[in-house]
């Protein structure tokens, strides 16, 4: 197991909300090796003690039940150095050892390419890994360019070295979400509906919107796991091959279909939120209707709905039975993702990363297939061919398509 984690973006919300609690959970479970080290790196002019104070505050807020012994153990793992990821010498100063490491890029995706190039220029020790948080790119073209960079940099070992994070894959419910058939299913709903609004994330969210933030990644993973064919084995490559095949079977929307099968909206008052630029026309709600060219799913609709500031939280999958198979009107099977699963996912993700696994990593071609599906929608929305609707915060959102 890798025994050193270099955490880029160590002062950010992702680190404080998920990664530090995940380290605490792994320690409490006895799953971290003795002497495990974490080097935090960010733009803040902190020292080790400043980073430890930050960690203590975030663990108190986001892991209040963590035992004191594990809190103290996490503090003991932590060191800190300021970094400028655009400066090769600054990055090299973080990697001054011969042992393998995991470089975790909890950074905006626009900084991935520069940071990876500078990590490699510094001399990445053998057996190391590089983790990239979602979103992987901002459209199909940028995802392809990033994949080309990673494959040219790491060669045949690219998919062993690179770990594309989508923490939804570490959620217990999601790990058991597979092998359905459309024979009795009229519609599959994939939902990511939240009661929360921006919660301080305007700087990121206003540049992403619902389509890029959750639909291209989390929700496409759920779709793929529901729709994929049964696996030949439980091996990581078999799983990822099956997910790629399912995503490849999703029929891309033609221009005329985008107007009929998609909708976007934002909650009233969104443009007045601090940090929001009205000129970006960012959606806080998105809905897509999709079909798959797979015999098992002939005649089954896939409906994806995601939104913020809605009346109720609904995350997961709803399987609506065909009328002939219903014992009563509206028969359905709900598979819900619990609130706590965001926090429980990251220990699994970190453990997979550190132990050399890849079952919880998104493969490069998988990311590209997901962008292939949403790219025509992004194009149509950018050209205003689909109107931006409004909905009241705290409502159920726009009517279903």
What does this molecule look like?
- The chain is built from 13 helices and 13 strands.
- The protein is of the alpha/beta class and 401 residues long.
- The protein folds into two domains: 161 residues, NAD(P)-binding Rossmann-like Domain (Rossmann fold); 202 residues, Dihydrodipicolinate Reductase, domain 2 (2-Layer Sandwich), CATH 3.30.360.
- The strands form two sheets. Strands 12-11-7-10-9-8-13 form a seven-stranded mixed sheet.
- Helix 1 links the parallel strand 1 and strand 2.
- Helix 5 runs parallel beside helix 6 and helix 10 runs parallel beside helix 13.
- The longest helix is centred in the middle third of the chain and has 26 residues.
- The chain is globular, with a radius of gyration of 21 Å.
- The N and C termini lie far apart (48 Å).
- The model has no long low-confidence stretch (mean pLDDT 94).
Write the layout of secondary structure elements.
Blueprint: E1 4-8, H1 13-28, E2 37-42, H2 48-62, H3 68-77, E3 78-82, H4 88-92, E4 102-105, H5 112-122, E5 129-132, H6 140-154, H7 158-161, E6 162-164, H8 172-175, E7 185-193, H9 202-227, H10 236-248, H11 255-261, E8 262-267, E9 285-290, E10 301-307, E11 314-321, E12 332-336, H12 341-354, H13 364-382, E13 388-391
Parallel strand pairs: 1-2, 1-4, 2-3, 4-5, 5-6, 7-10, 8-13
Antiparallel strand pairs: 7-11, 8-9, 9-10, 11-12
Helix pairs in contact: 1-2, 1-3, 1-12, 2-3, 5-6, 6-13, 9-10, 9-13, 10-13
């Amino acid at each position: 197991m890798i025994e050193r984690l270099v955490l880029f973006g160590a002062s950010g919300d992702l680190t404080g909300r998920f990664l530090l609690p995940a380290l605490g959970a792994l320690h409490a479970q006895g799953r971290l090796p003795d002497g495990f080290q974490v080097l935090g790196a960010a733009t803040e002019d902190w020292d080790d003690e400043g980073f430890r104070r930050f960690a203590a505050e975030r663990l108190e807020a986001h892991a209040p039940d963590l035992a004191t012994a594990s809190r103290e153990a996490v503090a003991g793992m932590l060191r800190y150095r300021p970094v400028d990821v655009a400066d090769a010498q600054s990055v090299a100063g973080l990697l001054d050892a011969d042992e393998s490491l995991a470089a975790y890029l909890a950074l905006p995706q626009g900084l991935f390419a520069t940071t990876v190039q500078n990590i490699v220029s510094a001399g990445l020790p053998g057996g190391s890994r590089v983790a990239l948080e979602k979103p992987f790119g901002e459209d199909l073209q940028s995802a392809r360019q990033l994949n080309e960079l990673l494959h040219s940099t790491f060669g045949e070992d690219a998919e062993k070295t690179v770990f594309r994070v989508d923490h939804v894959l570490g959620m217990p419910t999601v790990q058991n979400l597979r092998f359905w058939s459309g024979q009795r299913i009229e519609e599959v709903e994939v939902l990511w509906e939240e009661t929360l609004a921006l919660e301080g994330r305007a700087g990121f969210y206003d540049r992403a919107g619902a389509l890029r933030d959750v639909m291209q990644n989390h929700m496409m993973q759920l779709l793929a796991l529901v729709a994929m064919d049964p696996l030949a084995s439980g091996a990581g490559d078999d799983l990822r091959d099956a997910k790629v095949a399912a995503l490849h079977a999703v029929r891309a929307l033609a221009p005329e279909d985008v107007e009929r099968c998609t909708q976007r909206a934002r909650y009233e008052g969104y443009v007045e939120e601090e940090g929001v630029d009205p000129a970006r026309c960012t959606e806080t709600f998105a809905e897509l209707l999709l079909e798959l060219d797979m015999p098992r799913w002939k005649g089954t609709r896939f409906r994806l709905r995601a939104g913020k500031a809605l009346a109720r939280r609904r995350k997961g999958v709803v399987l609506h039975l065909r009328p002939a198979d219903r014992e009563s009107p509206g028969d359905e099977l709900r598979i819900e993702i619990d609130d706590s699963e965001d926090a429980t996912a990251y220990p699994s993700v970190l453990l997979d990363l550190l132990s050399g696994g890849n079952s919880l990593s998104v493969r490069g071609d998988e990311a590209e297939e997901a962008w292939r599906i949403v790219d025509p929608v992004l194009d149509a929305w950018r050209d205003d061919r689909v109107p931006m609707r409004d909905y009241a915060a705290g409502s159920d959102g726009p009517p279903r398509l």
